[in-house]
Specification:
With 197 residues, the chain is mainly alpha-helical. The chain has seven helices and two strands, in the order βαααααααβ. Helix 4 runs antiparallel to helix 6.
Length: 197
C-alpha cells in the first residue's frame, strides 16, 4: 500500500522520548530518586523542543495543522464508527485533543516536580508574612506547601499515565477501524494511503 508523508523526525523523536520518560518515571524508576528527576528534565526538554517545533517546524508538525476542536473530534469519531475513513497527514481531531491534554498534563507534572526538587518550602519558612507561603501553610490544617505541591504532582502524574493508556488504546482502535497502522507511521514517518487518496 502506498504511503503518504506524516510525522517528521523531530516529531517522532520527541514523541518517543516523552513516551519513554513517562514509562520510566511511571513504572520503572523509583520516585524521588536522582534518576527520576533527570528523566523528568529529559521529558520537559523533549516537550520544549516539540512546542518550539510546533511553531517553526514542518507544515504537518505545526499547531495550525491539528487545532483542538471538540466538534471535529466528535465528527471524526462518528465517521470512524460509521465506517467512513480519512487519512490525516498529521493528528486526526481526536488525536489532537489527546496531544494537547498529554502536553498540558506533562507541564503540570514537570513544573511541580521542579518545585519539589528545588525545595522552595523549607521547614523554616523564613518570611512569615509572605502571603504565598501562608497560602500553602493553610493547606489541610497546616500540612505545609511542599505537601500540596507533592499532591498536585502525584495527581497530575497519575492523570498522565491514565491519558497515556487511553492514548495507546485510541491509537490501536483508530488503526483497526481506519486500516492505517499509526504505530508504524510514528516509527517510520509515513501513513498508509486509503484507496483513492
Amino acid at each position: 500500500m502506498p504511503t503518504a508523508p506524516a510525522w517528521d523526525p523531530v516529531v517522532r523523536l520527541t514523541h518517543w522520548g516523552i513516551a519513554l520518560a513517562v514509562v520510566l518515571n511511571g513504572f520503572v524508576v523509583e520516585d524521588e530518586s536522582l534518576i527520576h528527576i533527570w528523566v523528568g528534565y529529559a521529558a520537559i526538554s523533549f516537550l520544549v523542543l516539540r512546542l518550539i517545533w510546533g511553531l517553526i517546524g514542518t507544515e504537518d508538525a505545526r499547531f495550525t495543522s491539528f487545532p483542538p476542536s471538540l466538534a471535529a473530534a466528535k465528527a471524526h469519531l462518528s465517521d470512524l464508527l460509521a465506517g467512513r475513513h480519512r487519512t490525516y497527514r498529521s493528528h486526526n481531531p481526536l488525536g489532537a485533543l489527546m496531544v494537547y491534554a498529554l502536553w498540558g498534563t506533562l507541564i503540570v507534572v514537570v513544573a511541580t516536580g521542579v518545585v519539589m526538587a528545588s525545595d522552595p518550602f523549607p521547614s523554616s519558612y523564613g518570611m512569615s508574612g509572605d502571603s504565598f507561603t501562608a497560602l500553602f501553610r493553610e493547606y489541610e490544617g497546616h500540612r505545609g506547601g511542599s505537601e500540596l505541591i507533592e499532591d498536585i504532582h502525584e495527581l497530575a502524574a497519575n492523570t498522565l499515565l491514565f491519558l497515556a493508556v487511553v492514548h495507546v488504546g485510541g491509537v490501536l482502535l483508530e488503526s483497526r477501524l481506519s486500516g492505517v497502522n499509526l504505530i508504524r507511521a510514528m516509527v517510520k514517518g509515513g501513513k498508509d494511503r486509503q484507496a483513492g487518496e
